[in-house]
Amino acid sequence: MSTRPDPSSFSDSSQIRTTSLNIVLTADLKSAVLSGHVDITFERVNKDCQSLVLDCKDLDISRILDQTSGEELEYVVGDKYKDFGSPLTISLKPTTNGVTVHYKTSPSASGVQVLSAEQTFGKHPYLFTQNQAIHARSIVPCQDTPGIKTPYTAELTVDKPLVAVMSAVSVRSEETDTTTTYFFNQKIPIPAYLLAIVIGDIVSKDISSRVRVWSESANIDKCFHEFEDTEVILKAAEAVAGEYVWGRYDLLVLPPSFPYGGMENPCLTFVTPTLLAGDKSLVNVVAHEIAHSWTGNLVTNANWEHFWLNEGFTVFLERKILKELAGPADGEAVRQAAHLHGLNSLKYAIEVFGDDNPLTALNVNLDGVDPDDAFSSVPYEKGSTFLFYLETLVGGPSVFDPFLRSYIAEHAYKSITSEVFVNYFKSHFPSVEVDWEKWLKTPGMPLVIPEYDDSRQRKSVEVANAWSKGVISEKELESLSSKQVISALTLLHTYDNVTVETVGKLEAAFHFGDSQNSEILFGWCRVCIKARYDPIVDRALDFATTQGRMKFVRPIFRDLFSWKEYSQHAIDVFEKNKNFYHNICRSMVEKDIQAHQASA
Fold it and tell me: CA 170 to CA 185: how far, in whole Å?
């Protein structure tokens, strides 16, 4: 696959490029199948190209038609290759400039999860998609590469009383006695991984004229309260990055099995219900997803080997937004505290992979490697650290901020490689010396870690030090913010002197195990497991099996796998509950189990 522009795709954008999609599907949630057709138009980059190769995964193709003549076209579905699916090769006539593919999805489509009514807060089943990185091909035959961007229209027919939303603007709907057909239009070209569908008994509540929150009705008021500042965050993002061009910014709170903190689908950001802390303390994830409206969705990595261009830039921009929200007095300290805290997840990711693992470099080789297997916080945190370092080299935010806005404006609506960014930087700062090869290709921790302002971190450090020695003050906890508690627990987990007795005293005093803040509960579970505090095991496994966010699920299971007395119990609990998880999370934990058993 390595001879093509994207090693994760069978398609070849150097030969032929999709120019538009029109997706017409009917959803049957009982059978977990989407059926219908997709109209695909394209342009031949190579005028002599005689075939269109698309990505598909477990799709049942029934026929393919020439859009111009209506004639049936010959096609071949190739052998399935690992997790990449199969190439769908369509023979083209000289006059063919569009095809219509009739198909249906598999009940086990990797990009789809269908929940039974019992798995929701309501009385009806629920369907949602998660297509990043290479799962769009399980929902629609397409050039499933971020190097290709297309506008799309869609018609989605669902049974009443279900509602359908997509990563596009809803145009209208038509009803029959038993069904509703929703029509959508995404005018801005997007890569296939940003195609998103949700079907469920969902309702919405407007936050502003361009922002609304969606969820199941039982949760809507709670979700509205948690995310009611989204318009404020969006305006702060515009102040940092420029005009928001997508029109609507809707935010949809998914059921607990959603495998990520958020997903930046245009016009319809997905977020996990684990953000519902009750005090808005975890909405920095919303700032991250909003930031993707510029870095990722507008300026996109050309393939997943350059994923840091999406995520490193977005973390960097997210923290610029947090600075804007905090105001001039505290903003820079808030931003740098976030960078400092992010180093902890970076260290953990590199520890898991190994500091000499090539997947811990910023630019990686994914020839034959499933991008999901390469996923970690490395492109996020190592990428943002690199950008902060570059900012210090050029003279600080006052110099780098205008450059960042110009970079976004220059490369909006494009898919680019690291080389494009490097050349753009060099053109603006020709006298600044950077060892680009080492920064982009060296595995492990960043070559340089900036000297971040730690003023907002000091209290967490003091508290973690005290807790590690069993020095506990209930009044002190009352003076800490949720973020400071999270930071203190994250630091406490890095200590090797925390005893079972100390953990027991902390739990008796603070009841962290009962916290409704998912980040606090996660941090506490990891501290307790490391200290071998037996009473936490059931709570940790309950937490890991009632939500499917990989950030929480995988480390908790990994930690328990390493605890000899509970390793097999943790595996058994996962096996019992594995159908709860989204396919992406389930498959990654299964690979973690295989790695653990291989090393045992």
Answer: 7
Catalytic residue, candidates 216, 226, 289, 318: 289
Residue where the block lists tokens 């501290």: 527
pTM of full prediction above 0.85: yes
- Could you give the CA distance from residue 192 to residue 297 in angstroms, rounded to a whole number? 11
Residue 82, burial from CB neighbour count under 10 angstroms (0-12, 13-18, 19+)? exposed
At 122, the pLDDT band (50, 70, 90 cuts) reads: confident
Model confidence pLDDT, tens digit, residues 202-232: 999 999 999 999 999 999 999 999 999 999 9
Calculate Rg over the CA atoms of the chain.
24
- Asked whether the CA dihedral 69, 71, 74, 78 is positive or negative, the reply is positive
The torsion angles phi and psi of 158, rounded to 5 degrees, stand at -135, 160
Contacts of 521 (CB under 8 A, 6+ apart): 512, 513, 515, 543
- Partners of residue 248 on adjacent β-strands: none
C-alpha count within 13 angstroms, C-beta hemisphere, residue 6: 30
Contacts for 367 with CB less than 8 Å, ≥ 6 apart: 1, 2, 7
Using alpha carbons, select from 163, 289, 287, 159 the residue that is nearest to residue 220. 163
Cα 266 from Cα 343, distance rounded (Å): 29
Per the DSSP assignment, residues forming a β-bridge with 181 are 157, 174
- Let me know if 380 is a catalytic residue: yes
Interatomic CA distance for residues 41 and 16, integer angstroms: 10
Q: Write the DSSP assignment of 187-219 as a string of letters.
A: EEEE-GGG--EEEESEEEEESSSSEEEEEEGGG
Q: What is the dihedral of CA 175, 176, 177, 182, to 10 degrees?
A: -40
Could you give the C-alpha distances from 230 to 206, 286, 292, in angstroms and in order? 11, 7, 14
Size of the chain, expressed as the number of residues it contains: 600
Average pLDDT score over residue span 39-51: 97
Report d(CA 547, CA 275) in Å as an integer.
11
- Active-site annotation holds for 289: yes
- Catalytic residue (choose from 182, 193, 260, 380): 380
